[in-house]
Amino acid sequence: PLSLVRDHRAKEILTAQGITVRSFNADLLYEPWDVNDAQGRPFTTFDTFWERCLSMPFDPEAPLLPPKRIISGDVSRCPSVTLVFEDESEKGSNALLARAWSPGWSNADRALTTFINGPLIEYSMNRRKADSATTSFLSPHLHFGEVSVRKVFHLVRIKQVLWANEGNKAGEESVNLFIKSIGLREYSRYLSFNHPYTHERPLLGHLKFFPWVVDEGYFKAWRQGRTGYPLVDAGMRELWAAGWLHDRIRVVVASFFVKVLQLPWRWGMKYFWDTLLDADLESDALGWQYITGTLPDCREFDRIDNPQ
């Protein structure tokens, strides 16, 4: 919703200058207003939403070919106050990130190709393993628009057809599960569009005033990886060093945060926003509310994972 307001304002300003403005869906498979139930109402659970997406009468649009030439602007004409440069306080953390990540569209394409031709075929078996490169590592590239979610979707579907023709059931299942993970990203934006407050308060209204423990000491120990629980602490140190966590480790550290320390989930979501390279308001809000137990189709509120 915030991005829609921003885009609308930009259109107004440009239109007032006599510039013709058109916008295109580049972040989603389907626009949120296109996916509703038979009565035209938005879905409230992921399963019903995703079932509808998979049965839509039209496939997600295929990505366009890249333009042969892009006319770049003159950066020297930009006011210095609008340009953001690295300052001394950021050099240390940026050096760590540079060791773990290679940004840009060409590196995004390389990561996608590597995943499709490698780990994807065994994704159904290995996706929960956090000790090796079993996932796509595409989330930062998707977040910064370096690769289109529609391109990812169509390329993995092509691979699925090839495996289906070969009778490779494991490959087909892996693609279904990977596309489902894309669906969760899609659903996070769908929820935020229909419920713009998801990053601020729970969807289950009766949990709005849950008595969370407001303890800065607990919060600091969790951030610094000094809780005394090795898996939690290793995850938090990796987050600081690499700006990324495997999905299963995100579940572990988030569950420990809200179920063991009983700290407000919004604190944890804000820290993820500050430290994750793929920090994503919609996806993080969905993840934290799911772990906390404040969504209609989430985990049981009293479920506690063993962090050992």
The secondary-structure element order is HHHHHHHHHHHHH
Could you give the distance between the termini?
A: 39 Å
Write down the overall geometry: globular
In the CATH scheme, the class of the largest domain would be Mainly Alpha
Helical content, roughly? Answer: 40-55%
Question: Can you describe this structure?
Answer:
The protein has helices at residues 2-16, 46-54, 91-100, 105-116, 123-126, 139-143, 149-166, 169-194, 216-224, 230-242, 247-260, 265-275, 281-292. The chain is built from 13 helices and no strands. It is mainly α and 308 residues long. It has 2 domains: 1-62 and 96-194, Alpha Horseshoe (Serine Threonine Protein Phosphatase 5, Tetratricopeptide repeat); 205-292, Orthogonal Bundle (DNA Cyclobutane Dipyrimidine Photolyase, subunit A, domain 3). The mean pLDDT is 90.
Entry keywords:
DNA Cyclobutane Dipyrimidine Photolyase, subunit A, domain 3, Serine Threonine Protein Phosphatase 5, Tetratricopeptide repeat, 308 residues, mainly alpha, globular
How are the SSEs placed, and which strands pair?
Elements: H1 2-16, H2 46-54, H3 91-100, H4 105-116, H5 123-126, H6 139-143, H7 149-166, H8 169-194, H9 216-224, H10 230-242, H11 247-260, H12 265-275, H13 281-292
